[in-house]
Amino acid sequence: MTPVGLQHYLVVSVLLFCLGLLGVLVRRNVLVIYMSLELMLNAANLALVAFSRFNNNLDGQVIVFFIITVAASEVAVGLALIVALYRRRHTTHVEDLTALKN
Amino acid sequence: MNQTLPWLILFLPLLAVAGITLFLQRKPRLSAALSIGAVLVSFLLSVTLLAAFLQGRAPDISLTWLQVGSLQIEFGLHIDALSVLMLLVVTGVGSVIHIYSIGYMRDDPDYARFFACLSLFVFSMLGIVVSNNFFQMFVFWELVGLCSYLLIGFWYQRPSAADAAKKAFLTNRLGDVGFLIGIVMAWAVTGTLSFAGMKDQWPHDPAVYGTTATVIGLLIFCGAVGKSAQFPLHVWLPDAMEGPTPVSALIHAATMVAAGVYMLCRVFFIFTQPALLVVAWIGGITALLSALIAVQQDDIKRILAYSTLSQLGYMVMAVGFSAPPAALFHLTTHAFFKALLFLGAGSVIHALSDEQNIWQMGRLRHKMPVTYWTFLAGTLALCGLWPLSGFFSKDAILAAALESNNKPLFALGVLVAFLTTFYMFRLFFVVFLGKPKSDRVEHAHESPRVMTYPLVFLAAGSVVGGFFGVEHFLAPQFFPNKAVPIVPPLEPWAMIPGLAAFFIGLGAAYFCYGGADSDPLPGKMKAVCSLLRHKFYFDEIYAGVVNVAQDTPARAINLSDMGLKLVVRLAHGTVEGTGRVLRLVQTGNLQTYTLLLAAGAALALYFILTR
Questions:
Q1: What is the DSSP string of B82-119?
Q2: Which of B176, B86, B101 shows the shortest CA–CA distance to B131?
Q3: According to the model, what pLDDT value does residue A68 have?
Q4: Which residues from chain A sit within 8 angstroms of residue B600, using beta carbons?
Q5: Phi, psi of B154 (to 5 degrees)
Q6: Using one digit for the tens of pLDDT, what is the confidence trace for B111-156?
């Protein structure tokens, strides 16, 4: 049994990222899209932690803490926006939110 | 006291204008009183100034107005024989016209505005008269132009009046361009703008500046051609008849047109011999042309307008003969009798409820005795019958023609004298004698006293004006070494043809128009009369010239403008078309944008990593 190396971590990270991107692209519900987005963010976190571990450099982990903090506040703001949007438009479906075009 | 006198004379009318426009627009009586009071006081002060001047105590004031580099501009009040005389004429005739206007403009709703403009006109003219430098003169010169515009277009509701005002203004601009260039050139040559300084610098021997001096003289003469309505810029003056009659009187007698002749005399030292020859001929041509046109006009004011043109031609001709005193003498006497004739005509027009066609008048002699007698005095003075004022001044000009040995122009002058008598008595016979030619004559009545007293005053001036020794008064300024007697001597060779012309003209006019109901001349000389009736087609020629000179380039420029427009359209069309195509990409769907963003990022990564 080969030891778990950097490559393994990165593959998992890429898979997670692609799953997140796929979710963002194909799901119709804004809430789900938002969750997928968080998935992408965490995929990036995973990659950073892996690099940090294998390069013996703590900078990456520090960045991850920052990202988690910022993401927490971002979630708060983002969810608030979605709630406000729902109250106003009575929908959370992206096809109905085409204000950019008109 | 002495210092303030000229200031008061100049600025009293302006104060009246300011008072009326600021406070008295709604109070016609008060504004008229203020305006008349100001001009009358100016006149009385001018008389005081004359007394001071005769005692040799006249002040000469000069303040520095502004200074730009080496260019120093003064604001001065120059008092000499010339300006004192003009001050008297302008304020004297001006006050009479102001008083007359009370009666003439009685029913006009814009009474206050009229008096404000009238006083502003007098102020501007006084400014020209007392100027001691070119710059100041030009400023007031333009002010006079503005006032003429305001007053000719006083009844601006009438399109014809508005057009006439514009015509007068633009024609004057044309002359003023030359005037301005002349002033700048004179400044460039001498380095000063003041008349006195220029006179010192100006070479007494014209050869020093050669043709430059002649060119400067001719350019400055351009200004006078515009203002004094000389050929070929004379076309505005007859149209200026659209203004109220007192305005015509003011323009023709004391202010506007006198400004040109006055200016020529003021800067007489500038003119070289060749320039003077041109001046004389322009004057002569103007005198002849307009006298001929006057013979076939039917509008009473237009006849007088052409008569003014013709007399101005005389004055300019006199300047051309190096005889400015004679020119100013004629200007003074002319101011009296022309103001008289215009005010008389105004009285007739007023009595016939605004009828101006002489063939609708007739037999006004008994209806309007004061107007009749004063008009007769004015006519005789204009035609030059001894011993009325016009005789002496015209005699002086003809004598000057003889003295400068210019035979063709002397003959022309005599011919014009004949024509003058002819058209003036044509007017006189048709209007005052003969049969009544329309019903309006039945209702005619003499004008109120406020209009007839000015007539009587001016008639007195016209009759005795020749005996004041105007020439004698002015001569020392122009010819320091020549003695001129107080009462001009009778020059037999100038006098006899002049008087002969008068009597022949009188006889011819009586022969043609004594008791005529309509004009007999067009029947006999059709072509000539139609030419005269259409004023030698000057207006039509000018319209044609403007067409060629202005409309053709305008059309060419319009064409190139269309080409330019095409280029602009093309540029704007390309941008808009591209925009339309690109707009299709914008779906408004978030996920499309995200996909494109991701694809773009992937592409960018691919290129960066595979390098």
A1: HHHHHHHHHHHHHHHHHHHHHHHTTT-TTHHHHHHHHH
A2: B86
A3: 92
A4: none
A5: -60, -40
A6: 888 888 888 989 999 999 888 888 889 999 999 889 888 888 888 8
CA–CA gap between residue B155 and residue B167 (Å, rounded): 15
- Nearest chain B residue to A95, by CA: B589
CB burial of B326-360 (b: ≥16 within 10 Å; e: otherwise) equals bbbbbbbbbbbbbbbbbbbbbbbbbbbeebbebeb
Helix, strand or coil, per DSSP, at residue B68: strand
How far apart CA B344 and CA B341 sit, in angstroms, is: 5
Name the residue among B588, B591, B594 with its Cβ closest to that of A102: B588
What end-to-end distance do the CA atoms of chain B give, in Å?
A: 100
Residue with structure tokens 């009229």? B114
Residue given tokens 């008087």 in the structure block: B499
End-to-end CA distance of chain A: give it in Å, rounded: 58
Cα-trace Rg, chain B = 30
Task: Dump the DSSP string for A55-93.
Answer: HT-THHHHHHHHHHHHHHHHHHHHHHHHHHHHHHHS--B
Residue A10 DSSP one-character state: H
Residues of A in contact with B586 (CB under 8 A): 100-101
Give tens-digit pLDDT for B155-179: 888 888 888 888 888 888 888 999 9
Read off the tokens for B590: 């978030």
Q: Searching chain A, which residue's CA lies closest to the CA of residue B590?
A: A94
Checking ipTM against 0.85, whether it exceeds it is: no
Nearest to B589 among A26, A98, A102 (CB): A98
Q: What's CA B581's distance to the chain center, in Å?
A: 67
The one-character DSSP state at B549 is I
- Which DSSP symbol is given to B525? S
Question: Quick check: B6 and B61 in contact, CB under 8 A?
Answer: yes
- Between A25, A94, A102, which is nearest B595 by CB? A25
Contacts of B591 in chain A (CB under 8 A): 24-26, 94
